[in-house]
Amino acid sequence: MRVGIRRVRADDWRSARALRLDALRDEAAGLAFLETYEHAAAEPDVFYQGRTARAADGDEAAQFVAVDGSDWVGSVTVIAQRAGTLDYHGRPIEQSRATVVGVFVRGEQRGSGLIDRLLETCAQWAGDLGFELLTLGVHRDNVRAQGAYRRAGFAPSGVTFESTIGTEIEMVRHLRPGVQRDTSDNSPPGVG
């Protein structure tokens, strides 16, 4: 069965929580996520209900999930960040952009191209909203993730910054709003 990609729905919060906790138990979690398993597991249901509802609708954030049958096998969130505000690290945003966070693909799906499809879906969402930049932060020692992001059209911006997990490299992908790369499967991004 082909893995489908879709935006979360508000009532998906239980599955979103379960996948997030699985991601935070992954061997690479210490280099990939700003949050710990212990912190995330302690959050009440209302936290995940709100987070999922906000990512399910509107143009401030979107969470996209990869679903194989009924199994969630990957996820990515993209956040709209407007010039004149602060990003989630507290840094000033000089140019409006969309930022990718929370990237996770289960081990059995790694190397399948799923990460490329998830990131392309983020690029489509951002481009449709008129953003010209899609950015992300990746730990300087997370070479595997850096390679996946390069393959998806990201390049280091030259900016590094400190976060709770150490030194991160900012990577950027330039977008032409409304025009994105071919997803190679002839179905529109986000459909599945």
Detailed description of the structure:
This protein has 192 residues and is of the alpha+beta class. It has a single domain, classed as Aminopeptidase (3-Layer(aba) Sandwich). The protein is 31% helix and 30% strand. The protein has helices at residues 13-25, 29-32, 37-42, 45-56, 114-128, 143-151, and strands at 4-7, 61-68, 71-81, 97-105, 133-139, 155-163, 166-174. Helix 1 packs across helix 4 (45-56). The longest helix is centred in the middle third of the chain and has 15 residues, at 114-128.
Indicate the topology.
Layout: E1 4-7, H1 13-25, H2 29-32, H3 37-42, H4 45-56, E2 61-68, E3 71-81, E4 97-105, H5 114-128, E5 133-139, H6 143-151, E6 155-163, E7 166-174
Parallel strand pairs: 4-5
Antiparallel strand pairs: 1-2, 2-3, 3-4, 5-7, 6-7
Helix pairs in contact: 1-4
What structural class is derived from the secondary structure elements?
alpha+beta
How do the SSEs run, as a string of H and E?
Answer: EHHHHEEEHEHEE
Q: What's the structural domain tally?
A: 1
Bin the helical content: 25-40%
Number of strands: 7
CATH architecture: 3-Layer(aba) Sandwich
Largest sheet: 7 strands, mixed
Poorly predicted runs: 178-192
Distance from first to last alpha carbon: 11 Å
User: How big a fraction of the residues is strand?
Assistant: 25-35%
Assign an overall shape: globular
For this structure, the CATH topology is Aminopeptidase
Q: Give me the side-by-side strand order of the main sheet.
A: 1-2-3-4-5-7-6
How many alpha or pi helices?
6
The residue-averaged pLDDT reads: 85
**Which CATH first-tier class would you pick?**
Alpha Beta
Radius of gyration, Cα only, in angstroms? 16 Å
User: What do we call the CATH homologous superfamily?
Assistant: Gcn5-related N-acetyltransferase (GNAT)
